[in-house]
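Folding Query — how this chain folds
Tokens — whole-number codes for backbone shape
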Amino acid sequence: MRAAVFNSFRGPISIETVDDPDCAADGVVVKVEACGVCRSDYHAWNGADPSLTFPHVMGHEMAGTVLEAGPETKWKPGARVTAPFILGCGTCHDCRSGHSTLCDHQEVMGFSRWGAFAQYVSVPKADFNLVRLPDEMDFVHAAGMGCRVTTAYRALAERACLKADEWLCVHGCGGIGLSAIAIAKAAGAGVVAVDTNAQALSLARQLGADVCIQPHNQSSEMLAQAIHDATDGGAHVSMDALGHTQTFQNSLRSLRKAGRHLQIGFPIGDHAVQSLPLLDLVYGRQISILGSRGMSPSGFEGLFKTIQSGQLDLEQLVSRRLALTELEAALTSMGHFASAGVSVVDQF
């Protein structure tokens, strides 16, 4: 099969012919029709996960059709499918209770195992991990949904329990931030979008953000005051969708008393979250801090219902369709925060 392979951190990504993946007895091999390009891919390529072994193939936001199914699975060739990027064992307490993102035996597509920037990808424990796509859902839109929409959906619906009469503030309007905006608007909440990138804010506005703020040299206190003024007292839920100390601090200060902070952005590198203002914010204002990563296979049902109802339009999220040969350029642009929206590889 053709695959995008790299052999060192920050090294060139070459399109190579490699062995097709094996099909486990309890797994499947999926013909990849589309795979989203995520900032987590950029982090992996840039060396954030030193446990990666080379050569390596990234890609964890896949959609495709079952090509081969093992004898111990119910799946049949031809099924239209996707899968969460965190693949659970399916048998532990966490998996059985619907929390496979906490599975101690998890594998992560595109990280601990080869991913879907390739013509084919294998998925283990298919009866637990594989998710059937609605017939009407386009493969590109399903891949664009990827980890960003599923992560944002679980964070808002299950972790923060965002309500229709509440305000959400999103700090960082990349793929996850834009997804959160669309999901919050589908739920009837008000949204404040914060980003330094004007193009990202334009997309946020298109997705329904009620207030868009492009901070320049504002202090956290000044930005917080602007958000408090716009929301009549501060956001009920605020999200750091980037993982920087600055966006983390800004998110906490955006909240009203007893607000809920969501940490979705992956803290990495020199800008990673370094300090926690316990006294004045967490203790004094009784703010809750919630982490959220990925979504279990069981969570897709509620997300699909929201999409099928017409409340959430995945097409608005996808800004570029790419060939596999364009992957390295797409990842490089992420390092400069030069791109906006969601890019999807659909030409293999």
